[in-house]
Each structure stands twice: as C-alpha cells, then as structure tokens.
Amino acid sequence: MAYNDASNPLPLPATVKLLVAGGFGVGKTTFIGSVSEIEPLTTEEIITEASVGIDSLDGVAGKTTTTVAFDFGRITLNPGLILYLFGTPGQDRFWFMWDELSTGALGAVVLADTRRLESCFGAVDFFESRGIKFVVAVNEFDGAFRYEPEEIRAALDLKPHVPIIMCDARAPRSATEVLISLIQHLLETSMTSSPR
C-alpha cells in the first residue's frame, strides 16, 4: 500500500474511477452535482438550433443544455475510499468519448428514466459488451409512472445479478446510496469471481 511520506506513515486512501452513464437528459449531470464534495466540472453547453435533426429532444423538450464531453466529481465515502465520478455524454454523436472515459473504470451507474427507458439500452449494451460491472439507477422524475424493479429488469433484459435501485438524482443521500450499492456490487462480484 502507498504511504504519504516517511514522517507520516498513514496509508493513502483507495481511489476508484466510476462512470455515470445513460441516455440524453436522464440526470447524469444532476446526479454528479448532488454528490460531489468538490465543485463538479461540467461541460454543459446550450442546445442550439444546429442540433435540430441531430439530437432528439423527445421526452426532454424543456432541456436547454447538454453535456458535450464529460462531467467530473469526487466523493469520499470514508477516509479510506474516494470515488472519482465521470459522467458520459448522452447523445449518440458523442459516444466516441465513452471508450476513453471507460478506460480504468471499475464500474458504472446506468441512469434510467422510465418515461424513455429505451434511452439507456445503449449504456447497458456498452458495459455488458466490455465486461464492466454496473447497476441501474432509476431516476424517479416527478410525474413519471412508477414501475417495480422486476418490471424494469424485464424491459431492459437485465441479468438477475444486476442491481436495480430507485433514486432521486437531485437528492445527495439518494445518489450516495446508489454509489454505495455499486461499490457493494463490485465487492460481491469480485469475491464470487476470484479463484479460491
């Protein structure tokens, strides 16, 4: 384990890179902003008429900004564990960023919006195809119909071991619980897959 220096032999905390992914407008920037202990880095830009016909605003007609590169935040879960959060852009035209952002990531949160559940299919496929473990966090938007986790599992064709968590991306406690669930999932799956 690494140490600070010879005069202070306290171990450095473990750092973990996690992704927050999902479709356009599902709340990734909000999620990171609600849990980050630092001022989050965002690459939000105003949606202009230039994106008409390129980016679909179906289901998010009131959205005025979009992430064009990534969002970044940090949260210390305990003195020995710091999480670095990278939010992916949601539009198809920025998917080339996902390969770069996923390098070194131990896991991911796939944010889902039940009003537009199909918008998270790409994220689920991306992580499954690359063997990156993930949880699905259903961002319960005001006025959206509430589904049971098993209904969402069936709609997304998720394997039984993939956790589904209901959350409110605006609420720091709720978003933190999602991250804790992801860490627990990563620990459980690493213990079951490691040789004995």
Set out the fold topology:
Layout: E1 3-5, E2 8-11, E3 14-22, H1 28-35, E4 44-46, E5 65-67, E6 71-78, E7 81-87, H2 96-102, E8 107-112, H3 121-130, E9 133-139, H4 149-156, E10 164-167, H5 172-193
Parallel strand pairs: 3-7, 3-8, 8-9, 9-10
Antiparallel strand pairs: 1-2, 4-5, 6-7
Give a quick set of tags describing it:
alpha/beta, 6-stranded mixed sheet, single chain, Rossmann fold, 5 helices, globular, two-stranded antiparallel sheet, 196 residues
Notes on the protein architecture:
This protein is α/β, with parallel strands linked by helices. The protein has one domain: 3-Layer(aba) Sandwich (Rossmann fold). It has helices spanning 28-35, 96-102, 121-130, 149-156, 172-193, and strands at residues 3-5, 8-11, 14-22, 44-46, 65-67, 71-78, 81-87, 107-112, 133-139, 164-167. The model has no long low-confidence stretch (mean pLDDT 82). The strands form three sheets. It has a six-stranded mixed β-sheet, with helices on both faces. Strands 1-2 form a two-stranded antiparallel ribbon. It has a two-stranded antiparallel ribbon with strand order 4-5. It is built from five helices and ten strands, in the order βββαββββαβαβαβα. α3 (121-130) links the parallel β8 (107-112) and β9.
